Amino acid sequence: DQQVKQNSPSLSVQEGRISILNCDYTNSMFDYFLWYKKYPAEGPTFLISISSIKDKNEDGRFTVFLNKSAKHLSLHIVPSQPGDSAVYFCAAGVNTGGFKTIFGAGTRLFVKA
Amino acid sequence: ETGVTQTPRHLVMGMTNKKSLKCEQHLGHNAMYWYKQSAKKPLELMFVYSLEERVENNSVPSRFSPECPNSSHLFLHLHTLQPEDSALYLCASSQGGRRGGYTFGSGTRLTVV
Question: Which of A10, A63, B57, B87 has its C-alpha lying 20 to 30 A from A87's C-alpha?
Fold first, then answer.
């Protein structure tokens, strides 16, 4: 049973527009959430995180929103750039629950020039 | 240079072979991880070492054997693998808590024939 789900395997967006990547989770004990970005032939790189005590965290063009009641988080990229084309992984965990961070299956973002 | 180096980048092995994957981190982190990424599946946590002690073992078959001789090095010893073990094997490291995210290596693409 997947505790972290990314239901869209891919997303295509025009350059300059907003990209919205979605993630749902089932474990209400999760208290931290992260997004990673992965280019081909490279490992994932940490992008942005949010604690369960917040509902929004912003870092430049990237904003993560958390809706705890819906067990849903999203990553907004605005404006989208061709260099943002990559696979984005959502991840979550319990900070006092050992070292397990649970990852989603990823969403491949294509930003068209 | 990501700070986490994995070798080899690619490996093809027969089902009767024995091989080892190597991971080295230059970040002074105190925890290291092995993840498996299969096509269109979430990253699966395999093993976690903290302060050179294995703290997580996610029901991984015994044909995978980890070794952590010191805080900078992590190995994954492979023997009598199956074709379904073909995947991208990612090493990661972190310092303390998981909220700050992991630093991943570029991975080893393993093909079992």
Answer: B57
Which of B9, B30, B36 has the alpha carbon at shortest distance from B90? B36
Tell me which residue in A9, A43, A105 faces B104 most closely, judged by beta carbons: A43
Around Cβ A105, how many Cβ atoms within 10 Å?
20
Residues of chain A with C-beta less than 8 angstroms from the C-beta of B103: 46
Of A44, A89, A99, the CB nearest to B98: A99
Tens digit of pLDDT per residue, chain B (113 long)?
459 999 999 999 998 889 999 999 989 998 899 999 998 788 898 998 887 777 777 789 999 999 999 989 999 999 999 999 999 999 999 887 556 688 999 999 999 99
> What contacts B99, CB < 8 A, 6 or more positions away?
A32, A34, A49, A51, A95
DSSP letters spanning B3-70: SEEEE-SEEEE-TT-EEEEEEEE-S--SEEEEEEE-TTS--EEEEEEETTEEEEE-S--TTEEEEEEE
Over residues A28-62, the pLDDT tens digits come to: 999 899 999 999 888 999 999 999 999 999 999 99
